[in-house]
Amino acid sequence: MAPPADLEKIGREGFDLLEKYLLRKGREKQAPPKRGPVVAPTIDAITASKKYRGLVFVEYGRRPKPPSL
To answer: How far is CA 14 from CA 7, 21, 26, 32, in A?
Structure first.
């Protein structure tokens, strides 16, 4: 077995290496900075159909009567 002085030195070196490794590893796992929500611009159905070459079906019928009180 190694003399006690050598064991102390080996132990200190080992714990120093562990601290360096764990501190570096801890910094890597930090959450990225928060950003504001990304809001996509909204478009109506007619604009979307023109942009994406689609169709829009519009029903021009009677409006329902409001319920009588």
So the answer is: 10, 11, 18, 31
